[in-house]
Please model this.
Amino acid sequence: MHAFYSPQLTISCREVQLPASESRHALQVLRLGVGDRILLLNGHGIRAEAVLDAVDNRRHSTTTCRILQADAAPQPQPHITLFIAPPKSKNIDAVIRTATELGAAAIVPVLCRFGVAKPDLDTIAHWTKTVIAAAKQSHNPWFPEIKAPAAFADVLEAADDHGFFGAVPEPADALPSPAALPVDDQRQTSLWIGPEGGFAPEELSALLAKGLQPLTVGQWILRVETAVPALLAVVLDRCQPHQRETAE
Amino acid sequence: MHAFYSPQLTISCREVQLPASESRHALQVLRLGVGDRILLLNGHGIRAEAVLDAVDNRRHSTTTCRILQADAAPQPQPHITLFIAPPKSKNIDAVIRTATELGAAAIVPVLCRFGVAKPDLDTIAHWTKTVIAAAKQSHNPWFPEIKAPAAFADVLEAADDHGFFGAVPEPADALPSPAALPVDDQRQTSLWIGPEGGFAPEELSALLAKGLQPLTVGQWILRVETAVPALLAVVLDRCQPHQRETAE
Model:
């Protein structure tokens, strides 16, 4: 079933109008019509099965949907914030799609010493569109929130002190070996991903001083498009209940 | 340091010639010259630091490298075979790159009932090039082996019975809940990834009957480009020694 973004949708709605861009996508691209069933997502956990009730077949900009049933999806556990040094624009789209599919709660662009991109407001607006597209494709009713970019030191100071950072695997790595998170910290966590080549030495020291744990997967150098899904998945898996039971 | 593929390289070599395509890449694209240091990988675990000793500056097809030091990297543990229903060609390249970076030992294209691609020999040759490119970028000296495509039932019959398959997360999923692998099975394992929309019901039954375990990460639908790095990373992490210690 095709999913659409409906910011109007609440748990008690009987009917919604699709936003004009969603309406055009439904009618012009997907060629849906009256009677077709769709999934609606409001981005904050509410989802609904609905049926197209009235459509504007000329301008395609108006679609009225009758709600068949709505529910509130529980917020995914753990609540993961992805702190990321934005890579080049082609790669950040892949990263945002992936983080949305895997259910990150928030994405924070972090300006690191060796970072290559400094996103402006237009870029952030584009990322929001990428989040919506990925959430619709993956049926994720909780859209990750994209925060304003900020400098590494400021973000770290304000951040929670539980979580992980992606470390470059090195044979002579002096970092302490990774360990599972304590059980009571697993409902809220974070993942920090540095720029290509890794964090600067003073950034690494600050992450460790904050109490964040280095995390690697495999033995080789990962591109950011691989590091984000791989490390997010490991953090999710380590915090899942069956892993907790194993650890207890 | 830039890495190059050298099938000639052995642990005791003093000198190698780069293959012509690698030589052209070094001299024409990267504009390396005599005295520049490079990393050589033979694809079977041997890697060497070398220095460009003599180059053909006219045709760029000959580069002689003097070996400074060579070593044999231990084969990564666990030995993971990725069984995959090949997606569309644009996506399979992303999957092969990712599996190479994360250190999969072998990639087996599996022809499933709902699969969309049937790779021919040209396609397999192209995948081999993708493996080499990704291995060089990630400095992985163990290139994953790409096997010939075969039908689901034949591959499953010949396959090892330890491992996981990517399951589509469903609220009403009747699959048994995932559990950590027994400790003594963690040196050799497998990951099966089905086509878009998941395995056919009879394929799912066969995977379960073989003893393979369903694995999901997050709660939403993953594209294959996300599912492969996410699930490979979870399998790697669950089989890492520190996870074994946690489980014991």
Observations:
- DSSP finds seven helices and twelve strands in chain A.
- The longest helix of chain A spans residues 121-138.
- Chain A touches chain B through 37 residues (CB under 8 Å).
